[in-house]
Automatic annotation (TrEMBL), chains A, B:
A single GO molecular function term of this UniProt record: glycine-tRNA ligase activity
Signal peptide: none
Catalytic reactions of this protein: tRNA(Gly) + glycine + ATP = glycyl-tRNA(Gly) + AMP + diphosphate
Alphabetical list of SMART domains matching this protein: WHEP-TRS (SM00991)
CDD domains in UniProt: GlyRS-like_core (cd00774), GlyRS_anticodon (cd00858)
Top-level lineage group: Eukaryota
Annotated PANTHER family: GLYCINE--TRNA LIGASE, GLYCYL-TRNA SYNTHETASE/DNA POLYMERASE SUBUNIT GAMMA-2
SUPFAM superfamilies: Class II aaRS ABD-related, Class II aaRS and biotin synthetases
Domain Aminoacyl-transfer RNA synthetases class-II family profile as annotated: residue spans: 84-562
Protein name in UniProt: glycine--tRNA ligase
UniProt cross-references to PROSITE patterns, sorted A to Z: AA_TRNA_LIGASE_II, WHEP_TRS_2
């Protein structure tokens, strides 16, 4: 609980007891007045005091509500109202559509309608340009249908679960942690008179939600008396539900499969071929864009938690002994909001740090991880994500998979809070080792030495003849145990055999001690020449939730401004040209054949230049036509008001320049593709001001 | 069976009986020589004749084999050998990889490796440019997971099946029609002495394979004694297997779902919103690119029959009373191979027809269908599909869905034969009607009349009071039946009531006749003014199997040419720049710092221009480096052999020009993006000939 909240809560509870005390005073004065001579003035004065105190209490309550409820402190609309305005616009203009709407939809499934689909395809193109092309990554495209063996090896079959509770009467399923979270959040928001200890307790539960075991979650649900939200029936104990969509491959029913929960596994199983394709050289990165599936227990938060989504994942394979990056210096000077583990633990907030400092101080584990954090920052901000609402949060030790050596999430703040949109993890050798073990195919890299290196190796050589004589049928198990000794165990045995000639040795497969004598085994350190080092590469994985990024982009791009007449609020998406669903609209100012012909010829040039655009020849007022396209985030509008020249309007400034018909398409192309800026255009061409045209 | 084959088969059987006869002659002469005086000369002469006949027979057999076995008639390598060469190159250079290879793979699942993924992404970009952008289509993006109700309405749950037989001992599954097809094809190829009637029968089976019912298929399998190919065990009767991957949505297990078998349904269920988005105007087209899934019984034919694939589908919605197309004239003069129904039925082959003639003669049902056939032709040939191995084949009446009014497949010839790669169907109102009925949401369009139209409508008005008195509890069922009468039934009833005053009427929900009297119902034709026409649009659907197109493109682009030394065959893919996986390679001629610096600066300019490329600074001979990139289909190579100018080499001609370092990137950009051609470049810049460089 922050300092402001704490002082407000304290003030509120003081005001409440003051109101209570004064209320009692008034009541006793009134009672006394019946029998004794209490003056009316005295009573009236006490009532006035009571009313004053009530007003003060209401004011503090309002402040506290505003502080924790997310309404803009500057008097702007609340988060919920803002979200509703964005979502209404998105749905009305078909940026997205609940899937299968005519059949009442399916929770957690959404379609992208035409403008949304276009934004998505632009985001993916820019991703390909920014990562795959600029970094020379090896892009692959693997199927969604995945046989069980692959996801058994990756751990998903056993561990990719959420804890679920069931309504004991209706059988409706809920995510256990969500119910607990809702309970705590609601209590904190609505019960403003809760004692501070209780506030601290509930906040602690919220902070440690991800750490709770099935038993702990169940105990909390019981303790707080949480029931099924729809029916108020009691709930079952929590139990794990696997989030993968299961299916069966082929007609026999004997080959179970799943819809992949991430695209990464398709890359890992191809490591050997990709390493060969890259000339057997490290480091290199492979990338994949594709659908992934998670059968969420009860999806909510609109586009943020869905059952099918597009992931874009990069697996950068690197020598674990050298995690430097050749292009690291290009990003080292970037400065942005970072939220290291230590700041989170000590209750501080995210702060602006120079990336190079974070790496050199060891806050970020290595250069390659740092390089990708920097590249992700550039990617997101170039898309139009507000840098003040973007932070890189380091995973706490308890959040990280046990094998990960460092992990940072790019979190974007939207009306739902801070949302994880990109995970950037150093997964060490975990995945390649898991598939090596399960498949028997070594997924390794090797480094050839310029000159052979001499290395010392421990060699354990059981003498089979003597062991056979001594242990007969058990010989094999003894030999296996001897060979499996660690270096220390072996050296201890050697010392014992050298000094005493024999030693007791526990063979776990026989579950007993046997006596090993000097003749039965030789243990020696040998020097050998090696020509190469063979090792399992480390993987650094930036993984992008494309749908989440797009939703946050929608919120960050949305604003409202009054119409010219001031009688209504108009919606605008301030998409940068690179993501705008179409780059330009072409309007004849009024309906006539000459202007339409000019509009069509400009449209033809735009098509030839590959610039997406739309002609609008309706007779609607130009102001309305601008408003319609502002709401789709179209950055430029060409208005045909003569046969020789036209105006080009920029969406956010509403500034207009005048250019010749011949130049129009190429000016829009330049500024849409980022070869020039609107400022360049503004300083090159004559300005056009037409009060009658714009709204 | 074609005329050549028939005459060869006849010749072969004549030669066979001649050989037999002559063999008998030789044998009897030899037998006679033991007892009588047959001269050795006579016997030798007979043997010589026999050998001559055997040689002749072998020659005819060889001709027949060549004719039906597909080996090049011009002495080129056989189809199988050609395919093997293509596939070897594709696999070695990671154009594709059998999915989950380290786990021994899964039949029918393939990954695109880096160059394949790049080709695929280029094909999809070009598809978006050629169809979505140029035609202003509404692109959407819907989930793969689909609830059962949608696919029940579309008919997939009930009818999307193949017939399967099982090995009765091992349970292994096979596609029934494939086994029969294999049997017939193999018999026709190997048993050259089959009587002509049998040949005709087997060919007839092959031609009508798709028409056979489950019972007919089963009977043929029994008749021919076909057994399980792997074990020779007997087979079960054929039974239907649904080809959709089934799954379950949400944790309850109560909402069955499927992985979509096509992307089209996602568009149909959104018709209402899309129609609104288009300003309630027809025609318009919606488009979708995405994964589709078919759980094939036993996939084969490599990349052509797979269990997961990318579809690109267009649904063009049009007024059924006006299927003209505004841009039809742009394609009407195209000429290409068409294979109308009539030509197929009468045993002719495909012929070159002007598209406009096919439409005006009614061979192609309407202008819009014709327009899309033309656009598909342009799309495929611009990608690099050989126009001589591309034909548009009309569906035979028995192949078409009952609701379709015309359907044409773009078929591409490859080593597997003629492969359906794009289907272009006029599906009439089938899909929208099916979803209207199932969902209860009317998926209709309307046309506002300029002036209200007067129409005559039949009005059936039951008189509830009198019906209630007569039928009491059954009143409702009688009223419903009266209102449900067809126009003819109602007019017959009116006539009967007018003449006789009463009539017997069968109420199916009561399963009996009732007597209707004149006072119970009024039936009249009324004239009404209507302001609009409401109707279900027709759908014209071009549906592209992207993976199949890409595989055929691989075959059409592949060729081999001797190395300069003539000691080996080098592989080349002649991809046009628009699909080439990377557009350009940059080589320093020899390893030195100056050249490498130039190469890096050119690479930077290429990246800035968005041209995908690769630097190769290995010391390998320039000839080897060219060969390596020719095999990836890279169209241009920049070789740095000085610090001021470089050479640019074109892949297929191996021609080289010399350009300045500064110009290199922009020349490659122009010719890669199609703004100029190699011929322009060749005529603009000085030619470079360097015997030492190229192979």
């Amino acid at each position: 609980m922050d300092a402001v909240e704490e002082s407000l809560r304290r003030a509120l509870s003081q005001k409440q007891s003051a109101v209570e005390t004064q209320g009692n005073t008034v009541r006793s004065l009134k009672a006394a007045a019946v029998t004794t001579s209490v003056s009316k003035e005295k009573i009236d004065a006490a009532i006035e005091d009571l009313n004053k105190l009530k007003l003060e209490m209401a004011s503090v309550e309002k402040q506290l509500q505003a502080h924790i409820g997310g309404a803009g402190r500057d008097g702007s609309i609340s988060k919920e109202a803002f979200r509703q305005a964005v979502v209404n616009t998105l749905e009305r203009r078909l940026f997205y559509i609940p899937s299968f709407k005519i059949y009442r939809g399916v929770a957690g499934l959404y379609d992208y309608g035409p403008p949304g689909c276009s934004v998505k395809s632009n985001v993916l193109s820019f991703w390909r340009q920014h990562f795959v092309l600029e970094e020379n990554m090896l892009e692959v495209d693997c199927p969604c249908v995945t046989p069980e063996v692959v996801l058994k090896a990756s751990g998903h079959v056993d561990k990719f679960t959420d804890l679920m509770v069931k309504d004991e009467k209706t059988g409706t399923c809920y995510r256990a942690d969500h119910l607990l979270k809702d309970y705590c959040s609601e209590k904190l928001q609505k019960d403003l008179t809760m004692p501070p200890e209780k506030v601290t307790e509930l906040k602690h539960v919220l902070a440690t939600l991800d750490d709770l075991s099935s038993e702990e979650l169940g105990a909390k649900i019981k303790e707080y008396g949480i029931t099924a939200p729809d029916t108020k029936n009691s709930l079952s104990d929590p139990y794990p539900f696997n989030l993968m969509f299961q299916t069966s491959i082929g007609p026999s029913g004997l080959l179970p499969g799943y819809m992949r929960p991430e695209t990464a596994q398709g890359i890992f199983v191809n490591f050997k071929d990709l390493y060969y394709f890259n000339g057997n050289k490290l480091p290199f990165a492979a990338a994949q864009i594709g659908q992934a599936f998670r059968n969420e227990i009860s999806p909510r938060q609109g586009l943020l938690r869905v059952r099918e989504f597009t992931l874009a994942e990069i697996e950068h394979f690197v020598d674990p002994e050298d995690k430097s990056h050749p292009k690291y210096s290009e990003v080292a000077n970037l400065e942005f909001l970072m939220f290291p583990r230590e700041e989170q633990m000590s209750g501080q907030s995210a702060k602006i740090i120079r990336l190079g400092d974070a790496v050199s101080k060891g806050i970020v584990n290595n250069e390659t991880l740092g390089y990708f954090i920097g590249r992700v920052y550039l990617f997101l901000t170039r898309l139009g994500i507000d840098k003040d609402r973007l932070r890189f949060r380091q995973h706490l030790a308890n959040e990280m998979a046990h094998y990960a050596c460092d992990c940072w999430d790019a979190e974007i703040e939207c009306s739902y809070g801070w949302i994880e949109c990109v995970g950037i993890a150093d997964r060490s050798a975990y995945d390649l080792l898991a598939h090596t073990e399960k498949s028997g195919v070594p997924l390794v890299a090797s480094e050839k030495f310029a000159e052979p290196k001499e290395v010392e190796k421990l060699v354990i050589a059981p003498v089979k003849k003597d062991l056979g004589l001594a242990f007969k049928a058990n010989q094999k198990k003894v030999i296996e145990s001897l060979e499996a000794m660690s270096e220390k165990e072996a050296l201890d045995m050697k010392a014992a055999l050298d000094s005493k000639g024999e030693v007791e040795f526990y063979v776990c497969t026989l579950e007993k001690n046997v006596t090993i004598t000097k003749n039965m085994v030789t243990i020696n350190k040998e020097r050998k020449k090696e020509h190469q080092r063979v090792f399992t590469p480390s993987v650094i994985e930036p993984s992008f939730g494309i749908g989440r990024i797009i939703y946050c982009l929608f919120e960050h791009s949305f604003y409202m401004r009054p119409s010219k007449a001031g009688d209504e609020q108009l919606n605008v998406f301030r998409f940068p040209p690179v993501v705008a669903p179409i780059k330009c609209t072409v309007f004849p100012l009024v309906q006539n054949q000459q202007y339409e012909a000019v509009a069509k010829s400009i449209s033809k040039s735009l098509t030839a230049a590959g610039i997406s655009h739309k002609i609008d020849v309706t007779g609607t007022s130009i102001g309305k036509r601008y408003a319609r396209t502002d709401e789709l985030g179209v950055p430029f509008a060409i208005t045909v008001d003569s046969e020789s020249s036209v105006t080009i309007r920029e969406r956010d400034s509403k500034d207009q320049v005048r250019v010749s018909v011949e130049e129009a398409a190429s000016v829009v192309k330049g500024v849409s593709e980022g070869h020039t800026t609107w400022a360049d255009v503004w300083s090159t061409f004559p300005h056009h001001s037409s009060a009658s045209q714009d709204d």
